[in-house]
Amino acid sequence: MKTFITILVGALSIAIARAEKQQPGPVSFGQLPKNYQTAIRGYYSMPGRLLDPYSAVYRFESPRKGWVKDGWAVGGKTHYGWIVPVWINAKNAFGGYTGTQLYYVMFFGENGNMADVTDMFNLGRGKFVQ
Prior knowledge:
Blueprint: H1 2-21, H2 36-45, E1 52-60, E2 64-69, E3 78-91, E4 101-108, E5 114-116, H3 118-122, E6 126-128
């Protein structure tokens, strides 16, 4: 048991020291694509995202600059970019609409990639900056 506690304390010390060394570099939010709505519709039309993507009704909010942070287990890196809140209502397996649900899609400033960051926002690891 003492060995386990010693290893745990050592690992935590190393993690804290690593986190303190990380200095934020220049922040780049990148450019929001002009066709961001089309890109988001295409993203959710991919297999496995929505059960019936052709029935989906989208309502887009204004894109805003923001950030999301990875979990500590994968390094805790902060990513900056453009975040688009989008409300989606699509059909379920029974043919009825599920009800409008809020999703957050981010266009990353460092590489221009796009991803659904809804879970990060729901866990408090994402925020808008303006």
